[in-house]
Amino acid sequence: MSFWRLFKRNRSAVLGLVILLLIVFMAATAHLFFPEDPFRLVGKSMSPPGENGFLLGSDSLGRDVASGIAHGAKTSLLIGLMATFVAVGFGTIMGGLAGYYGGRIDDLLMRVTEMFQTIPSFIFAILLVAIMKPSIESIVIAIAVVSWPAVARLVRGEFLSLKTREFVQACHTLGMSDIRIIMGEILPNCLSPIIVIGSLMVATAILIESGLAFLGLGDPNIMSWGFQIGAGRTLLRSAWWVCTFPGIAILITVLAINLVGEGLNDALNPRLRERT
Amino acid sequence: MSRTARRLRYVFKRLLQALPIVLAIVIVNFFLLHMAEGDAVDVLAGEAGSATPEYMAELRAKFGLDQPLPVQLLVYLKNVFSFDLGYSFRHEMPVLDLVLDRFWPTLLLMVSTILLAVGFGIVLGLLAATGLNTWRDTLISIFALVTYATPLFWVGLMFIVIFALNLGWFPTSGMKNVAAFNDTWSWANIKDVAHHLVLPTITLSLFYLALYTRLMRASMLEQAGMDYVTTARAKGLTENRIMFVHVLRNALLPVVTMAGVQVGALIGGSVIVESVFAWPGLGMLAFEALFSRDLNLLLGIFLLSALLVVAVNLVVDIIYSSLDPRIEVG
Predict the structure, then answer these.
(1) What is the rounded CA–CA span in Å between residue B120 and residue B139?
(2) Which residue of B20, B268, B301 is in closest CB contact with A122?
(3) CA nearest B308 in A: which residue?
């Protein structure tokens, strides 16, 4: 329970959590409040916010912007979480192996990480999605591919310092297998930084997803905030609301997740907090 | 060994280290692009409407696309090292010319963005750190937090709505007014380009501004707790002198490193910003190449961006080692 007490001390993190829960609620209830398919044309086109029964207006085809935002929340959260999950999983395995075994595996991994840091990652993600054809899976894979090296580096560093500690040496003396030491002893001890980097990565993943969808590389069957903004681009002069509101949704979501991530950091790494 | 000779050797060593990375990037991108369904011939044939299989095979043979993959890769590598990046089927001109032609607008955008973001980031971080926990610090921190969470393309569009469409202060897109000036270096032309440059630069720099502000603030605070600050204080130096001469110089180091690390991300950001503002640079060219499946062109752009990142990191390392004499260059 001390975790919650520490987390609560950071007021902005609690605010972020409340906002995030509201967004999750909006995503979960989207089909109740907006039972229609968000791609469906439901009324007069180009209605300004508040007119013709559109809370946030409609676009050039008469699609409801508010409905798109509610359904888009599901897409953003889903892709953000899945991409992070894949990236953290893969990065942890690679970083863990490199840090634990060292030697050649470590060398190889560091070369690969270096290469990934040199490749402009967003262009790389664009390329991957375009090659695999835009779909939820390809977007998740692309975001994970450009995100995992950061996790691998972090986990490698943790493993490097933990593997020389006495409790790990004791495990070796007891004759424990490598896999048990990695999974049961070292990994639990570096969960906190992994959770923190993972939570911040969800925010980045949502930003990348929206950027891809904006450029026309979103899943064509699923409503997303980036797609809404990309589609509303040409209407800037006549219908500012089509672009504006989905952008605010992205901004608030990413902001909330970042606040929660910082709160987690404060709560899970108390030593870091004392320093600043 | 003299200092200059050591520095030269260091530069040479770093160049050698960079070579395998560049090579690996070329190879990876080559295979990735070949995983894509359909090649340039499919696109050309699709556009022509009716293309017989014989004609398509003939086209493939002409472009060397009928060779086995390893052969194509070897040919490509050989070409790259003789500065021949192939031929863009779509634009009907050599990739190198095309890429170099579009390189300067991107470089202009990136340099002005880095200057703006680093400059303002340092100032804002300094202001926040010197007024720790006052309204000034809070305000700057909130600003950094919000800009850090804002999608670049959305900021760009909002800037267009406010500053270009409603206020009419800046043009909405492009790099210059169409064919108004022929002389590149005339004063009117420079002013015109600068006028078009304002909104894209501010948009692209916002995200990095947030990053540098936070970094600068944290770095200043970390340095302020160091022993040498206590010594300086004991010597009777004024607080201003300690802050601006001693602490500031040390606090700048991580900011300079970060500026180098972020160049790759900056290129990614420029794809978005260039496509929002129709800025005729590499980012927009990459986007066009993607949709016309112009493989050679995409490879050229990737290679150039990777080289750019490697080069910038090298320059940053050299600047870094002269800023901080403690760093061993040998």
Answers:
(1) 15
(2) B268
(3) A118
Map residue B94 onto helix, strand or coil: strand
Query: Would you call A126 and B165 a contact, using CB atoms and an 8 Å cutoff?
Result: no
CB contacts, 8 Å: B290 with chain A = 126-127, 130
Q: Where are the alpha helices (DSSP H) in A133-165?
A: 136-162
Residue A141 in this model has a pLDDT that exceeds 90: yes
Tell the residue number behind the tokens 């906190």, with chain if given: A192
- The DSSP element (H or E) to which B188 belongs, if any, is helix B187-224
pTM (predicted TM-score): 0.85
Q: Are A64 and A34 in contact (CB under 8 A)?
A: yes
Q: Can you list the positions of beta strands (E) in chain B?
A: 87-88, 93-94
Nearest to B264 among A121, A207, A251 (CB): A121
Mean pLDDT score across all residues of chain A: 83
Nearest CA in chain B to A233: B157
Please indicate whether residue B296 or residue B111 has the higher confidence score (pLDDT). B111
Is residue A174 packed enough to be buried (19+ CB in 10 Å), middle (13-18) or exposed (0-12)?
A: exposed
pLDDT at residue A107 in the model: 86
pLDDT in tens, B46-76: 666 666 777 777 777 766 677 777 887 787 7
- Compute CA B103 distance to the chain's CA centroid, rounded to the nearest angstrom: 11
Q: What is the pLDDT of residues B288-321, one digit of tens each?
A: 877 776 766 777 787 788 778 877 877 777 777 6
> How far, in Å, CA of B321 to CA of B324, rounded?
5
The beta-carbon contacts of A10-13 under 8 Å, at least 24 apart in sequence, are A10/A262, A10/A263, A10/A266, A10/A267, A12/A259, A12/A262, A12/A263, A13/A259, A13/A260, A13/A262, A13/A263, A13/A264, A13/A266, A13/A267
For residues B101 and B304, the answer to whether their CB atoms sit within 8 Å is no
**How do beta strands B87-88 and B93-94 pair?**
antiparallel
Give φ, ψ of A59 to 5 degrees: -95, -165
Phi, psi of B87 (to 5 degrees): -120, 130
Name the CA dihedral angle for B35, B41, B44, B50, rounded to a multiple of 10 degrees.
-120
Q: Which residues make Cβ contacts (< 8 Å) with residue A1, sequence separation at least 6?
A: none
What is the rounded distance in angstroms from the CA atom of residue A6 to the CA atom of residue B207? Answer: 30
What 8-state DSSP symbol labels residue B329?
A: -
pLDDT > 90: what percent of chain B?
0
Q: What is the pLDDT of residues A87-103, one digit of tens each?
A: 999 999 999 988 888 88
pLDDT, tens digit (0-9, with 9 covering 90-100), for B153-200: 899 888 888 887 778 787 777 777 765 555 566 777 777 777 788 889
* CB proximity list for B192: less than 8 A, separation 6 or greater: B176, B177, B180, B181
Choose among B265, B297, B247: nearest CA to B101: B297
The sign of the dihedral angle between the CA atoms of A216, A219, A220, A224 is negative
Q: Which of A12, A123, A233, A254 is the best mutation test for B, with the most CBs of B within 10 A? A: A123
**pLDDT attached to residue A92:** 92
Where is mean pLDDT largest: A35-49, A136-150, B39-53, B178-192? Answer: A136-150
CB burial of residue A102 (10 Å; 0-12, 13-18, 19+): middle
* Unique residue bearing structure tokens 């508010």: A66
